[in-house]
Amino acid sequence: MKNLEKEIVIRTIKIIDIGYASVVYIISAIILVSILNKLSGKYDKTVEEKKSTIRLFGDVILRTWIIAIFAYIVRNLFQMIPWPFEGVYGYKHLLVKEVIHSSLFVSFMVIFDHNLQGHVSILKDRLNIFYNNKYI
User: Which of 11, 27, 32, 133 holds its CA 20 to 30 A away from the CA of 114?
Assistant: First the structure.
């Protein structure tokens, strides 16, 4: 019975930890995308369509690089925040994949970054990526 109690407590803490990590990562993504968009200016599709394909590709690479740097910083800062349930029944906060990996943060950044999505959309159209005329 003691093992079942321990398992239930640890799983409950883990679920809370995953939810907490998700909230921190989504709030961080919203804040950082807002800052990134202010720095890069308002997205104007007509202006972006005039850029060369190589320039657009460079913009996507640069933006992705910036997101990766943000992910590194946010993940490392998040891991420094003390977890109140650390050690309860042997629980280890830094063993939870959602805490130590920043894939949630990166996903939220990409979802909220309309500038990046716009650039990718233009590139997809130009390079005919993901379109196969046989099926459309």
Answer: 133
How far apart CA 33 and CA 18 sit, in angstroms, is: 22
Q: Which is nearest to 124 in space by CA: 49, 63, 43, 42?
A: 49
pTM of the model: 0.81
- Of 86, 110, 107, 89, nearest in space to 98 by CA: 107
Distance of CA 78 to the CA centre of its chain: 14
Residue 33: burial class (beta carbons within 10 Å; 0-12, 13-18, 19+): buried
Q: What is the pLDDT of residues 37-95, one digit of tens each?
A: 999 888 899 999 999 999 999 999 999 999 999 999 999 998 898 889 998 888 988 88
Buried b (16+ CB within 10 A) or exposed e, 66-105: bbeebbeebbeebeeeebebeeeeebebeebebbeebebb
Question: For residue 133, what are its two tokens?
Answer: 């005329």
Amino acid at 116: L
Average pLDDT of every residue of the chain:
89
87 Ramachandran zone, left/alpha/beta (phi>0; psi -120 to 50): left
